[in-house]
Automatic annotation (TrEMBL):
One of its GO terms (biological process) is cellular respiration. The keyword Oxidoreductase applies. InterPro entries: 2-oxoacid:Fd_oxidoreductase (IPR051457), THDP-binding (IPR029061), TPP_enzyme_TPP-bd (IPR011766). Residues 69-219 form the Thiamine pyrophosphate enzyme TPP-binding domain. GO terms for molecular function: oxidoreductase activity, acting on the aldehyde or oxo group of donors, iron-sulfur protein as acceptor; thiamine pyrophosphate binding. PANTHER family: 2-OXOGLUTARATE OXIDOREDUCTASE SUBUNIT KORB-RELATED, SUBUNIT OF PYRUVATE:FLAVODOXIN OXIDOREDUCTASE. Pfam families: TPP_enzyme_C. This is 2-oxoglutarate ferredoxin oxidoreductase subunit beta. SUPFAM superfamilies: Thiamin diphosphate-binding fold (THDP-binding) (SSF52518). It comes from Bacteroides luti.
Amino acid sequence: MTMTKEDIIKPENLVYKKPKLMNDKPMHYCPGCSHGVVHKLVAEVIEEMGMEDKTVGISPVGCAVFIYNYIDIDWQEAAHGRAPAVATAIKRLWPDKLVFTYQGDGDLACIGTAETIHALNRGENITIIFINNAIYGMTGGQMAPTTLVGMKTATSPYGRDVKLHGYPLKMTEIAATLEGTAYVTRQSVQTTAAIRKTKKAIRKAFENSMNGKGSNLVEVVSTCNSGWKMSPEASNKWMEEHMFPYYPLGDLKDKE
Ligand SMILES: Cc1ncc(C[n+]2csc(CCOP(=O)(O)OP(=O)(O)O)c2C)c(N)n1
């Protein structure tokens, strides 16, 4: 007897329901990558807010460049680091749209530092989703501004050295000091509880963006197991032990 998909996937056994906005294209991410989890949360929140036809995402340069292939909403690709500037234009032209950027730490905290800080400081009614995996994932694991002191990367093989490379940049702490920001938070997605909190944070940020409350930043402290050269499980443990003390989780600012 030939088994069909319906024979294997019975509704009572379904533990993972794909949001309707996420299509069936196979993802290019490495097994264990945090990007796919955050993509799902973004799609779920847009659906739950009923904003499927009114959302414009700005995709980055980096591993998540192909986010536009997986979530069926309107997208605009931006040059490396320029997503907040592009989001500014789109939100100002179409104030009734939900506009968000989705950026890695190389994109947001290095080449795009100026755009990020100024868009947040202007209080643009957008949300920036910031995936901080502490390295440049797509290009082969080079050191990023967010790389931890002592952390080995392709371009810091002896570990990040403060004398040579300076200190890891805390963009989210900077964002919290800016007058234009409404909601600034740091979350993660390595456990079910953490995933739920991140979803709530994205929802709040998206609602603020629609209610004219100002700029919103949701950092997600993430892993890059390929770049870190660890298993997905070991990466999560390493992140909890090393990343969380330097990048503590929780809300940094909530104007409400
Ligand atoms: C102007 C410009 N400079 C450099 C690059 C090369 N480049 C592509 S992706 C990337 C880094 C991406 O790292 P990150 O933003 O942390 O995202 P991740 O891949 O880790 O998700 C770089 C430097 C580019 N495409 N354009």
